[in-house]
Automatic annotation (TrEMBL):
Organism listed in the record: Tetracentron sinense (Spur-leaf)
Domain of life of the native organism: Eukaryota
Alphabetized PANTHER family for the sequence: PROTEIN EXORDIUM-LIKE 3, PROTEIN EXORDIUM-LIKE 5
Similarity-based family: Belongs to the EXORDIUM family.
GO CC aspect terms: apoplast
Coarse class of the protein's main subcellular location: secreted
Subcellular location: Secreted, Extracellular space, Apoplast
Name of this chain's protein: EXORDIUM like 3
Amino acid sequence: MSQCCACRYPAPPLPVLLGLTIFSILLSVSPVIGWRPWPHQQINATDLEFGSSKKYEGSSEFVHLKYHMGPVLTANITVHTIWYGTWQKSQKRIIRGFLNSISNVNTKTPSVSGWWKTVQLYTDQTGANITRTVHVGAEKNDRFYSHGKSLTRLSIQSVIKSAATATTHPLPINPQSGLYLLLTSDDVHVQDFCGQVCGFHYFTFPSIVGYTLPYAWVGNSATQCPGICAYPFAVPVYMPGLKPLKSPNGDVGVEGMISVIAHEIAELATNPLVNAWYAGQDPSFPTEIADLCEGIYGTGGGGSYMGQVLDDHDGATYNMIGNGRRFLVQWVWNPVLNYCSGPNALDQ
């Protein structure tokens, strides 16, 4: 889920007029949203439980994903994480475990690294593929809520600036291959969270941060809207009779974050400045490689049916493995096959 306005990479400081224009666009844009049980939707619980599709996974007849000549992340990616608010050590371990598993090719199949291979299929204008290597870099703890417990889209950039300019252990500045991941704890309210988005990605304004840095924000929905952003490990109260699935790592809020984090990192790699890979004519409303597959986790997925996934001996639901853990991660659009794909596909 991305936002508007492309700029050069890295960009010079923005003029005041351009800054005001971008600010007004940022406030007016509605991000592309795939299927989630949003409160305003009319949901039939029976359809969710027993819905089926032969081989949906998107359709090349209707999807026109194009390359718009912007940069993609071909150099080794380093993810710098900002832990905003109160986090348990166990929660950090789950998220780090997922990030570290992206490049771990020695994991059993279906693997997280197998999922990333689909992202690697995308290239820049020179034909160079997105890197195979994703490192976990320096981290910053903001346990005292430096910008309060209510954040806007723009104040998120100020949090990143604070982390990068801190007097002790500042995050390194890496405009070429760094990704900055801001994770907010379950007691932090973020603009549009739960009502329109569970996470989004964009790039920082030089006028705020001093650099153009690709970043993503993802919130922990455990206390605010688990039935939306941690679905299907939690279900909305307005859908009686629908039972949540058992999460594989025992933390519903963080479990929901994992798939959103994967979604945003895949899109950051293929469209870091919103001028590379996306469908649609208007970069202010792009549909990106993960948006095209929102809610699809296995073969046959589509509409409100997640597809065929795996159930472990303890009853937990997952579709891929990474670093000794199980995860449920949505698929992404495969530019070779022209439909959504993942490592647990039954026809591989």
